[in-house]
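Hey, quick one: can you model this chain's 3D structure?
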Amino acid sequence: MALHEMDEVDRRLLNRIQEDFPLEAEPYRALGAALGLSEAETLGRIDGLRQARVIRQISAIFDTRALGYQSTLVAMQFAPERLEEAARQISDHPGVSHNYARQHTYNLWFTLAVPPGQDVAAAAQRLGERTGALQTRVLPTLRLFKIGVRLDVAGERSPETQEAQRIYGAEDARRGQRTPLDPRDIAFIRVLQRDLPHVPRPFDGYAAELGVPLAEVFAWCTGMTAGGKMRRFSAVLRHQNAGFVSNAMGVWQVPSERVDEVGAQMASFAAVSHCYLRPVYPDFPYNVYTMVHGRTREECVRTLDAIAQRTGITQRQALWSSKEFKKERVRYFEEEPDSAGAAPAGAPGGPVGTKAG
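Sure thing. Here's the predicted structure for all 357 residues.
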């Protein structure tokens, strides 16, 4: 299904389920009621969008750091003839979720996450050594201003639109880490991170698998969202199939005394899906990163130009993606059993029940 084959209702539906998928026993009935559709028509439209590979997944979206994982962006430089093979090897790592070739001296950029107790910087360096990287730059998040891809499929705003956005910062990270996860939490995460079954009552199977009442599944999601460990339950789209064929990583050289002010301004742009403060290197002095998606390259440039005009920051580069090697969500707490055959810590041995943990 090409973008021009979607009608206005499809586009409105996609916008809606990226924001907030109903945590209700009959979510498609609730979605349909909000859009003037029957439950059957809503299910049919979402099925068509799944079959067309526009919808990648509908699931819980968790905060990696709040779950105790370490994560980082990594930039590597490879000889051009080594790039494809190196990218393949890096994509094989279970903690690599996004892996792109970009038009820059650092020609491979990927995100890496490792479970609690592991060192993400050391893991990145090992990957660089194993694949023959000429340079490796580990770029962890120092401050998170915004995260959340919500593609405006319905065309309800221009690339220059600014809007009130929640700014995710140090307080959110602390809030998400105050209460450690117990085995019951881990069991819920393993289930709710999976793609939602495409049936009228999709959450019933989750409740049965976990051995809890349906209301308890929704209550757990509400509590995890309030505690900062779960961001939302929503759809994730395949950008290109949804019509957003261009993306740029805008990197900016922001004076240290203006980082908080400028980060908030950049995060307020609706077309910016991610905004981070990251460390600098002598050969890469850019400290604030903004991810921008657009239907065309020109649309991305318009957004970056609007950001520059709004903030007064002119020292920037746009790193355009030239190939997607991997893009999927991190699968949390699904490490393979160790050599002795023991299950990983927190593995459930059956239904968790209401008393577990």
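One thing worth noting: Residues 123 and 262 are 32 Å apart (CA to CA).
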